[in-house]
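We now fix the convention by which a protein and its fold are recorded. These numbers are not coordinates but entries in a learned vocabulary of local backbone shapes. A record is reproduced here so that you can trace the correspondence yourselves:
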Amino acid sequence: MHCPVAQLVAQLFLVQEVPGSSPGRTAYQRPILTLLLLFMFEFIKKTLGETGTQILFFIVAFAIFYFFFIRPKQQEEATKDDFMKSLKKGSKVVTIGGIHGTIADFIEERIILTTDRKGSQITIAKEAVSVMASQKMVEQKPKK
């Protein structure tokens, strides 16, 4: 009795066509890893049963979802919060609309930007500041 999950994993990731061989003939590229996966899934199936295997599948799926989608978004939000807290008068920023300016003042949840040397000012929402574009602008030194 073989575990279908282990066979599927082996077919997807560990089996590769042998160059120059007849069509459909495959060779195991990593036989030790394949055997380890087969034994691991068989062990899980025997100890936990079919229900336990399904529960383990959902736990692994949640872990993958967390590390690839939820955690990066949390880190991005933390970076944005840190950037917004570090803003002060005189900071150079870029809005999400592409307007470059220097912060002249803060009014509640709004920012007053000076956009050119003549002193033109516009009022924008704090959320309209692009963190990525502003950080790139600060890192790049203007060419003279």
Observations:
- Helices lie at 4-14, 31-86, 131-139.
- The chain has a mean pLDDT of 77.
